[in-house]
């Protein structure tokens, strides 16, 4: 019953707030659209807690650096975006262009200043990250990216893509790794939800100036190690990491192309 109640709330909130955001997008600037989306995200997090029984324990916000930075997050759940977006007043995010195929959603994404990249990856995706990310950087906004570019099952890992390093280098911004075990309670895009306390943990920022190999190795080690620890804490059993290679269909649905 919890999962059904949440599903009804999910679609009701999503349809209602998307229509509101489309109307808001007609106003100049992105302030009104941003206000609508922040309310949508807040209501969704409330529905997660009240209807699905998923509470959030957010750790490490006191370690966040001042000014603009990049959040590089583990991605196990469709709920990750809601949970993370709710922690900031103004967050730009990287997403695949598959979302623009949904009616009206492309208009809202453009108005929000989302960084929409080509799902096929390659130079087009890197150029989009650089050009659209530069706009967010110039405005002093924080940027959210999922460096794996795929929804991973708990205990699995995809190859970390280098788009996050290109932004780190081009914009000279620190990167905050974000570990999460939300996938235990809202697995990937599954209908069934599992009540409990999910943890998001903002880790120490990676300072600017590292070369590509050192940065990517440190980012992956920090996220995967802490995520495994959070999963172990919640399940009281050790986690063995399985490295996954995305299928063509999974790659096409990637949330970022880097």
Task: Give me a quick take on this structure.
With 258 residues, the protein is α/β, with parallel strands linked by helices.
Layout of helices and strands:
Blueprint: H1 2-24, H2 31-50, E1 54-59, E2 70-73, H3 80-85, E3 91-96, H4 105-112, E4 115-117, H5 122-138, E5 142-145, E6 156-158, H6 163-171, E7 175-180, E8 196-202, H7 212-235, E9 242-244, H8 248-252
Parallel strand pairs: 1-8, 2-5, 2-7, 3-4, 3-5, 6-9
Antiparallel strand pairs: 7-8
Question: Can you describe what's shown?
Answer:
Helix 1 (2-24) runs antiparallel to helix 2. The radius of gyration is 17 Å and the shape is globular. The protein is of the alpha/beta class and 258 residues long. It has a seven-stranded mixed beta sheet with strand order 1-8-7-2-5-3-4, sandwiched between helices. It has helices at residues 2-24, 31-50, 80-85, 105-112, 122-138, 163-171, 212-235, 248-252; strands spanning 54-59, 70-73, 91-96, 115-117, 142-145, 156-158, 175-180, 196-202, 242-244. It has one domain.
């Amino acid at each position: 019953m919890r999962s059904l109640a949440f599903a009804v709330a999910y679609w009701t909130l999503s349809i209602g707030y998307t229509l509101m955001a489309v109307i808001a997008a007609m106003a100049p600037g992105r302030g009104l659209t941003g206000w609508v989306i922040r309310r949508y995200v807040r209501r969704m997090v409330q529905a997660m807690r009240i209807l699905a029984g998923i509470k959030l324990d957010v750790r490490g916000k006191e370690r966040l650096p001042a000014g603009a930075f990049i959040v590089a997050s583990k991605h196990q759940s469709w709920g990750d975006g809601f949970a993370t977006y709710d922690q900031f007043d103004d967050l730009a995010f990287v997403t695949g262009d598959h979302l623009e195929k949904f009616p009206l959603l492309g208009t809202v994404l453009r108005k929000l200043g989302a960084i929409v990249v080509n799902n096929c990856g390659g130079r087009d995706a890197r150029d989009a990250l650089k050009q659209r990310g530069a706009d967010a950087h110039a405005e002093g906004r924080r940027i959210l990216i999922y460096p794996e570019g795929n929804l991973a099952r708990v205990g699995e890992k995809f190859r970390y893509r280098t788009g996050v390093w290109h932004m780190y280098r081009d914009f000279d911004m620190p990167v905050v790794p974000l570990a999460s075990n939300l996938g235990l309670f809202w697995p990937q895009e599954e209908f069934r939800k599992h009540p409990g306390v999910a943890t998001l943990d903002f880790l120490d920022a990676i300072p600017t100036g590292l070369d590509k190999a050192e940065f990517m190795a440190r980012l992956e080690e920090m996220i995967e190690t802490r995520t495994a620890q959070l999963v172990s804490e919640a399940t009281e059993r050790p986690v063995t990491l399985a490295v996954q290679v995305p299928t063509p269909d999974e790659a096409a649905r990637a949330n970022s192309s880097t």
